[in-house]
Design a protein that fits this description.
By secondary structure, the protein is an alpha/beta fold. 24% of the residues lie in helices and 27% in strands. The protein has 3 domains: 2-19 and 47-130, Ubiquitin-like (UB roll); 134-217, membrane protein fhac (Ubiquitin-like (UB roll), Roll), CATH 3.10.20.310; 223-294, Ubiquitin-like (UB roll) (Roll). The model is unreliable at 1-39 (pLDDT under 50).
Length: 300
């Protein structure tokens, strides 16, 4: 069986897609294990010699569109007064590149290697920035879509020729809406990714044009064949079914399914359950999906 997350995960397909969220980590040096491969012992890349040192100042150089203070507001793991870790800095810069620059059309922004000075008051860090151009949508195309027309897909995404390309609030969120639209029509393995073709820009131009093609893989339309429950010792399947309001044989609809799961959780007969307690089995030949929900009855 495959877990629900395997086919409804967010589409992190673009270079400016936001970095995955990171659990809050303690400001301490992490011990790195030695990796053994066959008879060869491979030492992992050593941690920076500045790891765990206090940061006195963190600034940027080469940034014209946004101030250093603005960039710092998009960084969550490292701040002046905190402690330096290379991985946290890389994650923060990915976040700033995605949510600040990438969401304002700066699709090619690069952060260089940090220049670090170990001063008496702490580390003074300067990060070079190459902002590049801000890009607008040129031609917008869709490939390999059959269930929806290209115009319908472009409208759902919200892309318009001439508009600034916003990597997060238009592209990523638009693809999320499109994925949900397909998932509510049985296409639970749907994927799509944007391919970008940058047009040459003049030397004095501060904006560029990028043609975007959304490549679609719709997959198969699935129908609901079976929903099973485990862990219901005294509550009957029939009682549970009365809460779900799902119909066997219907096209799988993601919104309807999760609305049924909310009703089941709100019923109060079972301990709260999550996506981790729901498993899906897809049968491509019959174009059906079987679902198993693991429950735990509340003590009475």
């Amino acid at each position: 069986m495959v877990n629900q997350k395997s086919f409804v995960a967010l589409l992190l397909t673009m270079m400016f897609t936001a970095a995955a969220s990171i659990a809050e980590a303690q400001d301490r040096e992490v011990k790195r294990p030695t990796i053994k491969k066959g008879f060869e012992q491979i030492e992992p890349e050593p941690e920076s010699k500045y790891a765990g040192h206090k940061i006195a100042a963190l600034e940027f150089r080469g940034n014209e569109r946004f101030s250093s203070d603005t960039i710092l507001r998009y960084m969550k793991l490292l701040k002046p007064g905190g402690f330096y870790h290379k991985e946290k800095l890389e994650s923060d810069l990915s976040r700033a590149r995605a949510l600040l620059y990438g969401d304002r059309g700066y699709l090619k922004t690069k952060f260089g290697e940090p220049e670090i000075e170990d001063a008496s008051e702490g580390l003074r860090i300067v990060i070079p920035v190459e902002e590049g151009l801000s890009y607008r949508f040129g031609d917008i195309n869709v490939e390999d879509a059959t269930a929806l027309s290209p115009d319908e897909i472009i409208e759902i995404i919200g892309a318009k020729s001439g508009d600034i390309i916003k990597g997060y609030s238009i592209i990523q969120e638009g693809l999320d809406r499109l994925r949900k639209h397909y998932a509510n029509r049985g296409y639970i393995q749907f994927t799509a990714s944007p391919q970008i073709d940058y047009r040459p820009a003049s030397l004095d131009s501060k904006e560029g044009i990028a043609d975007v093609t959304f490549q679609v893989e719709e997959g198969i339309m699935y129908f609901l064949r079976r929903v099973e429950f485990t862990g219901n010792l005294t509550v009957s399947d029939a009682e549970i079914w009365s809460k779900l309001r799902l119909n066997i044989g219907d096209v799988f609809n993601q919104d309807s399914f999760y609305a049924a799961m909310r009703r089941l959780n709100e019923w109060g007969a079972f301990e709260k359950f999550s996506d981790e307690d729901i498993s899906f089995k897809l049968d491509d030949r019959s174009r059906t999906v079987d679902i198993v929900i693991t429950l735990k009855e509340k003590e009475r």
